[in-house]
């Protein structure tokens, strides 16, 4: 028995309903990076039946094939770049391809459906507006232009000026092309600005999983979808003056009862934290010394616990919230969630 990530179906559905209502559009739900660490297959299976979900977004061909293998009956869009030799198989499986150049638009295999990406300032993928208009016409002439999209670079900012300019450039391109599914709203955009006129889909990623980075980390109405927990495997008494874990950074001020927990930085619980706490037997208790690769130690003095009892590393607000771990470790929410290891079991719960 080792670390588990409990994935709440009710929290996920709550978030998707809230975000779809705010965007006034169905969602192209990002499940890239193992569904932001929540488990690609788990999340896709849970979300596929819900009317709020138009389809799924992935980053790599392997992820696209993984979703296609589930036969969920919802479209899959490959956000990331891909190569011509990969297109026939992806297209044959119904995966929508991102097109970022006029050359790609002219050479897609017959039957492939594309979403044309417009670079409005992110400078990651996407065609510049002039080339995008040409590429869009090339796709439309062959019946391959299903969608048109761009990506905001600063949607969390209170000042919307940069997002407004990106949206203006995007709509200029859209006005030159035949009708296609338009989408550009990421998490920050949906939560900051709500519905964007003319958009057919929205793409909130991190927010769908109940998490947002500052300054949008509170007051959003979102619920965290993941609770990370691990079992106690060993309990022993540390004599006063003895130290715990590598480097002996923590020294027992008195005889202390210490529990060893089966989770460490190889499971995705960050090593470089300052005074993290976990919940055990209803109490918040400190992690002692350095976190190990596969284990961590907790002071359980005065608690009634035994091997096999669960310790919560992060979860709902009544537990150590994810934001506390983020603050203690100094890494972003995105990094923390996507860093949850594949060996951690993803377990869907109601």
TrEMBL record:
Keyword RNA-binding assigned: no
Output the InterPro entries linked to this UniProt entry.
Ala_racemase, Ala_racemase/Decarboxylase_C, Ala_racemase_C, Ala_racemase_N, Ala_racemase_pyridoxalP-BS, PLP-binding_barrel
Tell me the residue numbers annotated for binding substrate. Answer: 124, 293
The Swiss-Prot or TrEMBL record annotates one GO molecular function as:
alanine racemase activity
- Pfam families named in the record: Ala_racemase_C, Ala_racemase_N
Q: What is its EC number?
A: 5.1.1.1
By what name is this protein known? Alanine racemase
Pathway, per record: Amino-acid biosynthesis; D-alanine biosynthesis; D-alanine from L-alanine: step 1/1
Any keyword Isomerase?
Answer: yes
């Amino acid at each position: 028995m080792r670390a588990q990530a409990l994935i709440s179906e009710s929290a996920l559905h709550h978030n998707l309903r809230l975000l779809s209502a705010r965007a006034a559009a169905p969602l192209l739900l990002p499940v890239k990076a193992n569904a932001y660490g929540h488990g690609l297959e788990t999340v896709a299976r849970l979300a596929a039946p819900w009317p709020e979900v138009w389809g799924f977004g992935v980053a790599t061909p392997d992820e696209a094939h993984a979703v296609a293998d589930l036969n969920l009956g919802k479209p899959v869009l490959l956000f990331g770049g891909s190569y011509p030799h990969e297109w026939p198989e992806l297209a044959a499986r119904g995966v929508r391809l991102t097109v970022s150049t006029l050359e790609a638009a002219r050479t897609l295999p017959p039957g492939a459906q594309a979403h044309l990406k417009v670079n409005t300032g992110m400078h990651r993928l996407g065609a510049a507006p002039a080339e995008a208009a040409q590429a869009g016409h090339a796709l439309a002439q062959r019946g391959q232009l299903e969608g048109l999209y761009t990506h905001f670079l600063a949607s969390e900012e209170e000042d919307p000026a940069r997002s407004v300019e990106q949206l203006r450039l995007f709509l200029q391109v859209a006005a030159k092309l035949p009708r296609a599914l338009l989408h550009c709203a990421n998490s920050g955009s949906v939560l900051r600005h709500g519905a964007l006129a003319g958009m057919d889909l929205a793409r909130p990623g991190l927010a769908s999983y109940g998490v947002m980075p500052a300054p949008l980390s509170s007051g959003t109405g979102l619920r965290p979808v993941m609770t990370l927990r691990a079992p106690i495997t060993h309990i022993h008494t540390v004599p006063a003056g003895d130290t715990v874990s590598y480097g002996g950074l923590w020294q027992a001020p008195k005889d202390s009862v210490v529990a060893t927990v089966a989770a460490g930085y190889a499971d995705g619980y960050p090593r470089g934290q300052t005074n993290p706490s976990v919940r055990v037997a209803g109490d918040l208790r400190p992690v002692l010394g350095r976190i190990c690769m596969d284990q961590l130690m907790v002071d359980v003095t005065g608690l009634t616990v035994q091997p096999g009892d669960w310790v919560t590393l992060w979860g709902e607000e009544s537990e150590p919230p994810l934001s506390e771990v983020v603050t203690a470790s100094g890494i972003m929410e995105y990094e923390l969630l996507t860093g949850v290891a594949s060996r951690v079991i993803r377990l869907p719960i109601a």
